[in-house]
Here is the input.
Amino acid sequence: MKVLIVEDDPLHRSYLHEAVCSALPECETVIEAENGIAGEQLARDHKSAHIVMDLQMTGRNGIEAARTIWKERPDTRILFWSNYSDEAYVRGVSRIVPDGAAYGYVLKSASDERLKLALRSIFVESQCVIDREVRGLQQKSIGHANSFTDSEYEILVDIALGLTDRAIAKRRNLSLRSVQNRLQHLYDKLDVYQASPEDRLDSQFNLRARAVTVAFLRKLLNYSALERAEAELQDWLNDQS
Amino acid sequence: MKVLIVEDDPLHRSYLHEAVCSALPECETVIEAENGIAGEQLARDHKSAHIVMDLQMTGRNGIEAARTIWKERPDTRILFWSNYSDEAYVRGVSRIVPDGAAYGYVLKSASDERLKLALRSIFVESQCVIDREVRGLQQKSIGHANSFTDSEYEILVDIALGLTDRAIAKRRNLSLRSVQNRLQHLYDKLDVYQASPEDRLDSQFNLRARAVTVAFLRKLLNYSALERAEAELQDWLNDQS
DNA sequence: TCGCGTCTTGCGTAAACCCGCATCCCCTCG
DNA sequence: CGAGGGGATGCGGGTTTACGCAAGACGCGA
Here is the structure.
Protein backbone atom coordinates (compact mmCIF):
# COMPACT_ATOMS: atom_id res chain seq x y z
CA MET A 1 0.00 0.00 0.00
CA LYS A 2 1.13 3.53 -0.81
CA VAL A 3 -0.08 6.69 0.82
CA LEU A 4 0.34 10.21 -0.48
CA ILE A 5 0.19 13.07 1.98
CA VAL A 6 -0.68 16.51 0.66
CA GLU A 7 -0.33 19.15 3.35
CA ASP A 8 1.51 22.43 3.37
CA ASP A 9 2.29 22.75 7.04
CA PRO A 10 5.50 20.82 7.79
CA LEU A 11 4.50 20.11 11.37
CA HIS A 12 1.17 18.68 10.35
CA ARG A 13 2.80 16.81 7.54
CA SER A 14 5.17 14.96 9.78
CA TYR A 15 2.44 14.30 12.28
CA LEU A 16 0.37 12.78 9.52
CA HIS A 17 3.29 10.74 8.33
CA GLU A 18 3.67 9.23 11.73
CA ALA A 19 -0.04 8.61 12.10
CA VAL A 20 -0.16 6.84 8.77
CA CYS A 21 2.76 4.60 9.60
CA SER A 22 1.33 3.65 12.93
CA ALA A 23 -2.24 3.13 11.77
CA LEU A 24 -1.32 1.27 8.61
CA PRO A 25 1.62 -1.03 9.22
CA GLU A 26 0.92 -2.63 5.86
CA CYS A 27 1.77 0.65 4.17
CA GLU A 28 5.24 0.39 2.73
CA THR A 29 5.59 3.81 1.11
CA VAL A 30 4.59 7.26 2.25
CA ILE A 31 5.02 10.15 -0.15
CA GLU A 32 4.66 13.79 0.76
CA ALA A 33 3.62 16.83 -1.20
CA GLU A 34 3.56 20.32 0.20
CA ASN A 35 0.96 21.84 -2.06
CA GLY A 36 -1.87 21.01 -4.40
CA ILE A 37 0.10 21.12 -7.63
CA ALA A 38 2.78 18.76 -6.40
CA GLY A 39 0.05 16.58 -5.00
CA GLU A 40 -1.66 16.22 -8.36
CA GLN A 41 1.60 15.36 -10.03
CA LEU A 42 2.54 12.75 -7.47
CA ALA A 43 -0.93 11.26 -7.66
CA ARG A 44 -0.38 10.77 -11.38
CA ASP A 45 2.99 9.17 -10.76
CA HIS A 46 1.69 6.77 -8.16
CA LYS A 47 -1.53 5.43 -9.52
CA SER A 48 -2.34 3.15 -6.66
CA ALA A 49 -1.74 5.57 -3.84
CA HIS A 50 -4.34 6.51 -1.31
CA ILE A 51 -4.37 10.17 -0.41
CA VAL A 52 -4.60 12.25 2.73
CA MET A 53 -5.21 15.86 1.84
CA ASP A 54 -5.37 19.16 3.60
CA LEU A 55 -8.05 21.50 2.32
CA GLN A 56 -6.62 24.90 3.04
CA MET A 57 -3.40 25.35 1.12
CA THR A 58 -2.02 28.40 -0.56
CA GLY A 59 -1.98 28.35 -4.30
CA ARG A 60 -3.91 25.31 -5.42
CA ASN A 61 -6.10 24.23 -2.56
CA GLY A 62 -7.26 20.79 -1.60
CA ILE A 63 -10.60 20.90 -3.33
CA GLU A 64 -9.12 21.85 -6.66
CA ALA A 65 -6.43 19.24 -6.37
CA ALA A 66 -8.94 16.57 -5.42
CA ARG A 67 -11.13 17.47 -8.34
CA THR A 68 -8.44 16.97 -10.90
CA ILE A 69 -7.22 13.82 -9.21
CA TRP A 70 -10.68 12.34 -9.16
CA LYS A 71 -11.23 13.38 -12.71
CA GLU A 72 -8.25 11.30 -13.79
CA ARG A 73 -8.88 8.40 -11.45
CA PRO A 74 -12.34 8.42 -9.89
CA ASP A 75 -11.76 5.49 -7.58
CA THR A 76 -8.95 7.19 -5.71
CA ARG A 77 -9.56 7.15 -2.00
CA ILE A 78 -9.06 10.51 -0.40
CA LEU A 79 -9.18 11.48 3.23
CA PHE A 80 -9.66 15.21 3.74
CA TRP A 81 -8.05 16.44 6.89
CA SER A 82 -9.03 19.98 7.68
CA ASN A 83 -9.03 22.52 10.42
CA TYR A 84 -12.50 23.72 9.66
CA SER A 85 -15.94 22.48 8.90
CA ASP A 86 -17.12 25.59 7.06
CA GLU A 87 -20.21 24.87 5.10
CA ALA A 88 -18.32 26.21 2.12
CA TYR A 89 -15.78 23.43 2.37
CA VAL A 90 -18.29 20.71 3.03
CA ARG A 91 -20.35 21.83 0.08
CA GLY A 92 -17.27 22.11 -2.06
CA VAL A 93 -16.20 18.59 -1.28
CA SER A 94 -19.54 16.93 -1.75
CA ARG A 95 -19.87 18.72 -5.05
CA ILE A 96 -16.82 16.98 -6.48
CA VAL A 97 -16.85 13.51 -5.00
CA PRO A 98 -17.53 10.95 -7.75
CA ASP A 99 -20.36 8.46 -7.37
CA GLY A 100 -19.45 5.59 -5.15
CA ALA A 101 -16.00 6.88 -4.28
CA ALA A 102 -14.73 6.13 -0.81
CA TYR A 103 -13.63 9.26 0.94
CA GLY A 104 -13.43 10.79 4.36
CA TYR A 105 -13.50 14.11 6.12
CA VAL A 106 -11.99 14.43 9.55
CA LEU A 107 -11.15 17.54 11.47
CA LYS A 108 -7.68 18.31 12.68
CA SER A 109 -9.08 18.70 16.13
CA ALA A 110 -10.01 15.04 16.21
CA SER A 111 -8.08 12.70 18.46
CA ASP A 112 -5.22 10.51 17.27
CA GLU A 113 -7.53 7.56 17.68
CA ARG A 114 -10.17 9.01 15.47
CA LEU A 115 -7.70 9.85 12.75
CA LYS A 116 -6.17 6.41 12.76
CA LEU A 117 -9.52 4.75 12.71
CA ALA A 118 -10.54 6.85 9.75
CA LEU A 119 -7.33 5.95 7.92
CA ARG A 120 -8.01 2.25 8.34
CA SER A 121 -11.69 2.48 7.51
CA ILE A 122 -11.15 4.30 4.28
CA PHE A 123 -7.94 2.85 2.96
CA VAL A 124 -8.47 -0.73 4.09
CA GLU A 125 -12.21 -1.15 4.36
CA SER A 126 -13.21 1.29 1.59
CA GLN A 127 -15.71 2.95 3.83
CA CYS A 128 -16.73 6.57 3.93
CA VAL A 129 -15.92 8.27 7.18
CA ILE A 130 -17.36 11.70 7.74
CA ASP A 131 -16.71 13.56 10.92
CA ARG A 132 -19.81 13.83 13.04
CA GLU A 133 -19.69 17.61 12.98
CA VAL A 134 -19.33 17.75 9.23
CA ARG A 135 -22.05 15.19 8.85
CA GLY A 136 -24.35 17.48 10.75
CA LEU A 137 -23.74 20.21 8.24
CA GLN A 138 -24.36 17.94 5.30
CA GLN A 139 -27.66 16.83 6.73
CA LYS A 140 -28.79 20.33 7.43
CA SER A 141 -27.64 21.29 4.00
CA ILE A 142 -30.12 18.82 2.56
CA GLY A 143 -33.03 19.01 4.93
CA HIS A 144 -34.64 22.07 3.45
CA ALA A 145 -35.53 23.98 6.60
CA ASN A 146 -33.28 26.98 7.03
CA SER A 147 -30.72 25.59 4.67
CA PHE A 148 -29.76 26.49 1.16
CA THR A 149 -30.76 24.93 -2.09
CA ASP A 150 -28.27 24.77 -4.89
CA SER A 151 -29.91 27.56 -6.80
CA GLU A 152 -29.78 29.81 -3.79
CA TYR A 153 -26.20 28.97 -3.20
CA GLU A 154 -25.46 29.60 -6.82
CA ILE A 155 -26.88 33.05 -6.79
CA LEU A 156 -25.15 33.78 -3.54
CA VAL A 157 -21.86 33.05 -5.20
CA ASP A 158 -22.79 35.20 -8.16
CA ILE A 159 -23.47 38.28 -6.15
CA ALA A 160 -20.44 37.57 -4.01
CA LEU A 161 -18.42 37.73 -7.19
CA GLY A 162 -19.91 41.12 -7.82
CA LEU A 163 -21.98 40.37 -10.89
CA THR A 164 -24.93 42.52 -11.81
CA ASP A 165 -28.40 41.06 -12.06
CA ARG A 166 -28.15 41.28 -15.79
CA ALA A 167 -24.86 39.45 -15.93
CA ILE A 168 -26.16 36.72 -13.68
CA ALA A 169 -29.18 36.35 -15.90
CA LYS A 170 -26.97 35.92 -18.92
CA ARG A 171 -24.66 33.50 -17.18
CA ARG A 172 -27.37 31.32 -15.71
CA ASN A 173 -29.77 31.61 -18.60
CA LEU A 174 -32.51 33.23 -16.68
CA SER A 175 -34.61 36.31 -17.10
CA LEU A 176 -33.70 39.39 -15.16
CA ARG A 177 -36.76 39.01 -13.02
CA SER A 178 -35.97 35.45 -12.09
CA VAL A 179 -32.59 36.45 -10.88
CA GLN A 180 -34.13 39.10 -8.70
CA ASN A 181 -36.66 36.60 -7.55
CA ARG A 182 -33.98 34.23 -6.39
CA LEU A 183 -32.22 37.07 -4.71
CA GLN A 184 -35.25 37.75 -2.64
CA HIS A 185 -35.41 34.17 -1.50
CA LEU A 186 -31.78 34.41 -0.57
CA TYR A 187 -32.34 37.58 1.40
CA ASP A 188 -35.15 35.92 3.27
CA LYS A 189 -33.13 32.92 4.22
CA LEU A 190 -30.11 34.90 5.25
CA ASP A 191 -32.33 37.08 7.35
CA VAL A 192 -30.70 40.18 6.07
CA TYR A 193 -33.47 42.48 7.13
CA GLN A 194 -31.80 44.03 10.16
CA ALA A 195 -32.82 42.58 13.48
CA SER A 196 -34.54 45.85 14.34
CA PRO A 197 -38.21 44.93 14.12
CA GLU A 198 -40.17 48.05 14.94
CA ASP A 199 -37.20 50.25 14.30
CA ARG A 200 -37.40 52.95 11.68
CA LEU A 201 -37.79 51.68 8.17
CA ASP A 202 -34.45 52.93 6.90
CA SER A 203 -32.99 49.51 6.73
CA GLN A 204 -29.39 50.65 7.07
CA PHE A 205 -28.32 47.77 4.92
CA ASN A 206 -27.60 47.28 1.29
CA LEU A 207 -29.19 43.89 0.99
CA ARG A 208 -26.94 42.61 -1.73
CA ALA A 209 -23.74 43.46 0.06
CA ARG A 210 -25.10 42.47 3.42
CA ALA A 211 -26.10 39.07 2.15
CA VAL A 212 -22.54 38.36 1.15
CA THR A 213 -21.28 39.48 4.51
CA VAL A 214 -23.56 37.35 6.60
CA ALA A 215 -22.83 34.41 4.34
CA PHE A 216 -19.19 34.94 5.11
CA LEU A 217 -19.74 35.29 8.79
CA ARG A 218 -21.77 32.11 8.74
CA LYS A 219 -19.03 30.29 6.85
CA LEU A 220 -21.32 29.65 3.96
CA LEU A 221 -18.62 31.26 1.92
CA ASN A 222 -14.94 31.41 2.56
CA TYR A 223 -11.84 32.50 0.79
CA SER A 224 -11.29 29.24 -0.98
CA ALA A 225 -14.82 29.10 -2.30
CA LEU A 226 -14.51 32.64 -3.58
CA GLU A 227 -11.25 31.84 -5.24
CA ARG A 228 -12.69 28.88 -7.08
CA ALA A 229 -15.76 30.81 -8.09
CA GLU A 230 -13.63 33.64 -9.38
CA ALA A 231 -11.61 31.25 -11.51
CA GLU A 232 -14.78 29.81 -13.01
CA LEU A 233 -16.05 33.28 -13.64
CA GLN A 234 -12.93 34.25 -15.53
CA ASP A 235 -13.27 31.16 -17.68
CA TRP A 236 -16.82 32.07 -18.46
CA LEU A 237 -15.89 35.63 -19.27
CA ASN A 238 -13.29 34.41 -21.72
CA ASP A 239 -15.79 32.16 -23.44
CA GLN A 240 -18.08 35.14 -23.72
CA SER A 241 -15.60 37.28 -25.56
CA MET B 1 11.69 35.34 32.54
CA LYS B 2 8.22 34.04 31.77
CA VAL B 3 6.76 33.39 28.36
CA LEU B 4 3.11 32.92 27.53
CA ILE B 5 2.23 31.05 24.38
CA VAL B 6 -1.19 31.64 22.84
CA GLU B 7 -1.84 29.27 19.98
CA ASP B 8 -4.75 26.99 19.24
CA ASP B 9 -3.01 24.31 17.24
CA PRO B 10 -1.48 21.77 19.64
CA LEU B 11 1.27 20.83 17.23
CA HIS B 12 2.31 24.40 16.72
CA ARG B 13 2.01 25.03 20.41
CA SER B 14 4.43 22.35 21.37
CA TYR B 15 6.79 23.36 18.60
CA LEU B 16 6.75 26.90 19.95
CA HIS B 17 7.29 25.66 23.46
CA GLU B 18 10.39 23.88 22.37
CA ALA B 19 11.64 26.82 20.35
CA VAL B 20 11.20 29.15 23.29
CA CYS B 21 13.06 26.86 25.66
CA SER B 22 15.92 26.44 23.28
CA ALA B 23 16.19 30.08 22.24
CA LEU B 24 15.78 31.48 25.73
CA PRO B 25 17.56 29.33 28.28
CA GLU B 26 17.02 32.08 30.84
CA CYS B 27 13.30 31.52 30.57
CA GLU B 28 12.19 29.56 33.60
CA THR B 29 8.46 29.34 32.97
CA VAL B 30 6.45 28.71 29.85
CA ILE B 31 2.69 28.97 30.03
CA GLU B 32 0.32 27.90 27.30
CA ALA B 33 -3.12 29.08 26.30
CA GLU B 34 -5.14 27.54 23.52
CA ASN B 35 -7.28 30.50 22.62
CA GLY B 36 -7.56 34.25 22.90
CA ILE B 37 -9.75 34.37 25.96
CA ALA B 38 -7.52 32.10 28.01
CA GLY B 39 -4.57 34.08 26.75
CA GLU B 40 -5.95 37.35 28.03
CA GLN B 41 -6.66 35.83 31.41
CA LEU B 42 -3.22 34.30 31.76
CA ALA B 43 -1.64 37.57 30.69
CA ARG B 44 -3.43 39.24 33.58
CA ASP B 45 -2.27 36.56 36.00
CA HIS B 46 1.33 36.78 34.92
CA LYS B 47 2.09 40.44 34.65
CA SER B 48 5.68 40.10 33.61
CA ALA B 49 5.24 37.51 30.92
CA HIS B 50 6.28 38.04 27.35
CA ILE B 51 3.86 36.70 24.80
CA VAL B 52 3.99 34.71 21.60
CA MET B 53 0.66 34.81 19.87
CA ASP B 54 -0.99 33.22 16.91
CA LEU B 55 -3.24 35.51 14.92
CA GLN B 56 -5.78 33.15 13.48
CA MET B 57 -7.68 31.47 16.27
CA THR B 58 -11.30 30.52 16.45
CA GLY B 59 -13.40 32.53 18.83
CA ARG B 60 -11.32 35.42 20.05
CA ASN B 61 -8.52 35.91 17.60
CA GLY B 62 -5.01 37.16 18.18
CA ILE B 63 -5.62 40.76 17.29
CA GLU B 64 -8.49 41.14 19.68
CA ALA B 65 -6.59 39.41 22.44
CA ALA B 66 -3.54 41.58 21.86
CA ARG B 67 -5.61 44.70 21.93
CA THR B 68 -7.05 44.03 25.35
CA ILE B 69 -3.70 42.88 26.69
CA TRP B 70 -1.99 46.00 25.46
CA LYS B 71 -4.79 48.12 26.80
CA GLU B 72 -4.13 46.78 30.27
CA ARG B 73 -0.37 46.72 30.04
CA PRO B 74 0.99 48.65 27.06
CA ASP B 75 4.61 47.65 27.54
CA THR B 76 3.90 43.96 27.08
CA ARG B 77 6.11 42.47 24.45
CA ILE B 78 4.25 40.41 21.93
CA LEU B 79 5.54 38.33 19.09
CA PHE B 80 2.91 37.55 16.52
CA TRP B 81 3.47 34.27 14.79
CA SER B 82 1.18 33.80 11.86
CA ASN B 83 0.67 31.72 8.78
CA TYR B 84 -0.23 34.65 6.63
CA SER B 85 0.82 38.14 5.81
CA ASP B 86 -2.56 39.34 4.61
CA GLU B 87 -2.68 43.07 4.44
CA ALA B 88 -5.73 42.82 6.64
CA TYR B 89 -3.66 41.29 9.43
CA VAL B 90 -0.75 43.62 9.05
CA ARG B 91 -3.05 46.60 9.09
CA GLY B 92 -4.93 45.21 12.03
CA VAL B 93 -1.79 44.74 14.05
CA SER B 94 -0.24 48.10 13.32
CA ARG B 95 -3.52 49.70 14.22
CA ILE B 96 -3.35 48.42 17.79
CA VAL B 97 0.31 48.45 18.71
CA PRO B 98 0.92 51.10 21.41
CA ASP B 99 3.55 53.79 20.90
CA GLY B 100 7.01 52.52 21.57
CA ALA B 101 5.95 48.98 22.32
CA ALA B 102 8.35 46.24 21.31
CA TYR B 103 6.66 43.67 19.16
CA GLY B 104 7.34 41.31 16.34
CA TYR B 105 5.67 39.63 13.42
CA VAL B 106 7.16 36.49 11.97
CA LEU B 107 5.61 34.04 9.59
CA LYS B 108 5.19 30.40 10.41
CA SER B 109 7.04 29.57 7.26
CA ALA B 110 10.19 31.15 8.65
CA SER B 111 13.07 28.91 9.62
CA ASP B 112 13.77 27.78 13.16
CA GLU B 113 16.71 30.12 13.18
CA ARG B 114 14.65 33.11 12.25
CA LEU B 115 12.08 32.38 14.90
CA LYS B 116 14.65 31.95 17.63
CA LEU B 117 16.44 35.10 16.63
CA ALA B 118 13.21 37.01 16.75
CA LEU B 119 12.44 35.60 20.19
CA ARG B 120 15.75 36.81 21.56
CA SER B 121 15.61 40.18 19.85
CA ILE B 122 12.22 41.04 21.18
CA PHE B 123 12.20 39.51 24.61
CA VAL B 124 15.80 40.18 25.53
CA GLU B 125 16.82 43.18 23.46
CA SER B 126 13.42 44.87 23.27
CA GLN B 127 13.71 45.30 19.58
CA CYS B 128 11.00 45.22 17.00
CA VAL B 129 11.35 42.41 14.51
CA ILE B 130 9.11 42.46 11.49
CA ASP B 131 9.31 39.76 8.90
CA ARG B 132 10.74 41.06 5.67
CA GLU B 133 7.65 40.10 3.73
CA VAL B 134 5.34 41.80 6.18
CA ARG B 135 7.56 44.82 6.25
CA GLY B 136 7.14 45.10 2.53
CA LEU B 137 3.41 45.33 2.95
CA GLN B 138 3.65 47.94 5.65
CA GLN B 139 5.83 50.12 3.47
CA LYS B 140 3.54 49.82 0.51
CA SER B 141 0.66 50.49 2.78
CA ILE B 142 2.19 53.87 3.61
CA GLY B 143 3.79 54.87 0.34
CA HIS B 144 0.69 56.25 -1.28
CA ALA B 145 1.09 54.86 -4.78
CA ASN B 146 -1.43 52.12 -5.40
CA SER B 147 -2.06 51.61 -1.73
CA PHE B 148 -4.93 52.50 0.51
CA THR B 149 -5.40 55.46 2.77
CA ASP B 150 -7.20 54.98 6.01
CA SER B 151 -10.31 56.67 4.75
CA GLU B 152 -10.44 54.40 1.76
CA TYR B 153 -9.92 51.38 3.92
CA GLU B 154 -12.62 52.59 6.23
CA ILE B 155 -15.19 52.88 3.54
CA LEU B 156 -14.15 49.55 2.14
CA VAL B 157 -14.97 47.98 5.46
CA ASP B 158 -18.26 49.80 5.59
CA ILE B 159 -19.50 48.50 2.29
CA ALA B 160 -18.13 45.09 3.10
CA LEU B 161 -20.37 45.13 6.14
CA GLY B 162 -23.25 45.85 3.84
CA LEU B 163 -24.13 49.36 4.94
CA THR B 164 -26.00 51.70 2.65
CA ASP B 165 -24.46 54.98 1.60
CA ARG B 166 -26.80 56.76 3.92
CA ALA B 167 -25.87 54.62 6.89
CA ILE B 168 -22.20 55.12 6.21
CA ALA B 169 -22.73 58.85 6.05
CA LYS B 170 -24.43 58.81 9.41
CA ARG B 171 -21.81 56.61 10.97
CA ARG B 172 -18.83 58.52 9.68
CA ASN B 173 -20.37 61.94 9.90
CA LEU B 174 -20.19 62.70 6.25
CA SER B 175 -22.59 63.89 3.66
CA LEU B 176 -24.10 61.37 1.32
CA ARG B 177 -22.15 62.76 -1.57
CA SER B 178 -18.86 62.47 0.26
CA VAL B 179 -19.47 58.86 0.91
CA GLN B 180 -20.11 58.29 -2.75
CA ASN B 181 -17.06 60.30 -3.54
CA ARG B 182 -14.89 58.06 -1.42
CA LEU B 183 -16.49 55.08 -2.99
CA GLN B 184 -15.42 56.25 -6.38
CA HIS B 185 -11.86 56.62 -5.24
CA LEU B 186 -12.04 53.15 -3.85
CA TYR B 187 -13.39 51.74 -7.10
CA ASP B 188 -10.56 53.42 -8.95
CA LYS B 189 -7.90 52.00 -6.74
CA LEU B 190 -9.31 48.53 -6.73
CA ASP B 191 -9.56 48.67 -10.47
CA VAL B 192 -13.03 47.32 -10.44
CA TYR B 193 -13.89 48.42 -13.91
CA GLN B 194 -13.66 45.08 -15.67
CA ALA B 195 -10.41 44.40 -17.47
CA SER B 196 -12.25 44.45 -20.78
CA PRO B 197 -11.10 47.73 -22.31
CA GLU B 198 -12.85 48.04 -25.62
CA ASP B 199 -15.43 45.50 -24.61
CA ARG B 200 -19.07 46.41 -24.62
CA LEU B 201 -20.00 48.97 -22.07
CA ASP B 202 -22.25 46.71 -20.04
CA SER B 203 -19.88 46.53 -17.17
CA GLN B 204 -21.05 43.15 -15.93
CA PHE B 205 -20.13 44.13 -12.42
CA ASN B 206 -21.93 45.64 -9.52
CA LEU B 207 -19.14 47.91 -8.43
CA ARG B 208 -19.98 47.86 -4.76
CA ALA B 209 -20.09 44.10 -4.47
CA ARG B 210 -17.17 43.64 -6.79
CA ALA B 211 -15.01 45.96 -4.75
CA VAL B 212 -15.51 43.80 -1.71
CA THR B 213 -14.67 40.70 -3.65
CA VAL B 214 -11.44 41.93 -5.11
CA ALA B 215 -10.46 43.28 -1.71
CA PHE B 216 -10.96 39.79 -0.37
CA LEU B 217 -9.05 38.17 -3.16
CA ARG B 218 -6.23 40.61 -2.60
CA LYS B 219 -6.23 39.85 1.11
CA LEU B 220 -7.05 43.41 1.92
CA LEU B 221 -9.89 41.95 3.88
CA ASN B 222 -10.16 38.60 5.51
CA TYR B 223 -12.49 36.78 7.80
CA SER B 224 -10.95 38.07 10.95
CA ALA B 225 -11.10 41.69 9.84
CA LEU B 226 -14.73 41.26 8.89
CA GLU B 227 -15.49 39.71 12.20
CA ARG B 228 -13.98 42.58 14.11
CA ALA B 229 -15.67 45.15 11.95
CA GLU B 230 -19.00 43.44 12.42
CA ALA B 231 -18.59 43.53 16.18
CA GLU B 232 -17.84 47.25 16.07
CA LEU B 233 -20.82 47.78 13.85
CA GLN B 234 -23.12 46.04 16.28
CA ASP B 235 -21.83 48.22 19.09
CA TRP B 236 -22.51 51.29 17.05
CA LEU B 237 -25.98 50.11 16.14
CA ASN B 238 -26.78 49.64 19.79
CA ASP B 239 -25.60 53.12 20.65
CA GLN B 240 -27.82 54.40 17.88
CA SER B 241 -30.97 52.87 19.28
C1' DT C 1 -56.52 13.86 -15.53
C1' DC C 2 -57.06 17.46 -11.98
C1' DG C 3 -55.20 20.28 -8.41
C1' DC C 4 -51.48 22.33 -5.92
C1' DG C 5 -47.03 23.99 -4.84
C1' DT C 6 -42.74 25.72 -6.80
C1' DC C 7 -40.25 28.24 -10.22
C1' DT C 8 -40.06 31.51 -14.02
C1' DT C 9 -41.40 35.87 -16.30
C1' DG C 10 -43.39 40.53 -17.28
C1' DC C 11 -44.79 45.04 -15.79
C1' DG C 12 -44.27 48.93 -13.06
C1' DT C 13 -42.46 51.88 -9.27
C1' DA C 14 -39.87 53.78 -5.56
C1' DA C 15 -35.46 53.88 -3.63
C1' DA C 16 -30.54 53.37 -3.89
C1' DC C 17 -26.39 53.81 -6.63
C1' DC C 18 -22.88 55.75 -9.77
C1' DC C 19 -20.88 59.73 -11.23
C1' DG C 20 -19.79 64.26 -14.14
C1' DC C 21 -19.65 69.15 -13.16
C1' DA C 22 -18.80 72.82 -10.08
C1' DT C 23 -18.00 75.12 -5.51
C1' DC C 24 -15.71 75.58 -0.95
C1' DC C 25 -12.62 74.79 2.72
C1' DC C 26 -8.12 73.74 4.47
C1' DC C 27 -3.37 72.75 4.33
C1' DT C 28 1.17 73.09 2.37
C1' DC C 29 4.86 75.01 -0.18
C1' DG C 30 7.42 78.51 -2.40
C1' DC D 1 0.64 85.73 1.09
C1' DG D 2 -0.93 83.66 -3.19
C1' DA D 3 -1.07 79.23 -5.97
C1' DG D 4 -2.26 74.56 -6.09
C1' DG D 5 -3.95 70.04 -4.61
C1' DG D 6 -7.01 67.10 -2.07
C1' DG D 7 -11.15 66.20 0.20
C1' DA D 8 -16.20 67.49 1.30
C1' DT D 9 -20.58 68.95 -0.67
C1' DG D 10 -24.49 70.23 -3.83
C1' DC D 11 -27.06 69.37 -8.02
C1' DG D 12 -28.91 66.62 -11.52
C1' DG D 13 -29.79 62.65 -14.06
C1' DG D 14 -29.09 57.98 -16.03
C1' DT D 15 -28.87 53.02 -14.16
C1' DT D 16 -29.59 49.34 -11.30
C1' DT D 17 -32.00 47.16 -7.35
C1' DA D 18 -35.78 45.55 -4.57
C1' DC D 19 -40.12 43.89 -4.73
C1' DG D 20 -45.57 43.64 -5.05
C1' DC D 21 -48.86 41.70 -8.27
C1' DA D 22 -50.19 38.27 -11.38
C1' DA D 23 -50.06 35.09 -15.27
C1' DG D 24 -47.90 30.89 -17.13
C1' DA D 25 -45.06 26.54 -16.90
C1' DC D 26 -43.63 22.26 -14.88
C1' DG D 27 -43.71 18.32 -11.97
C1' DC D 28 -45.96 15.20 -8.93
C1' DG D 29 -49.02 12.69 -6.33
C1' DA D 30 -54.38 11.50 -5.72
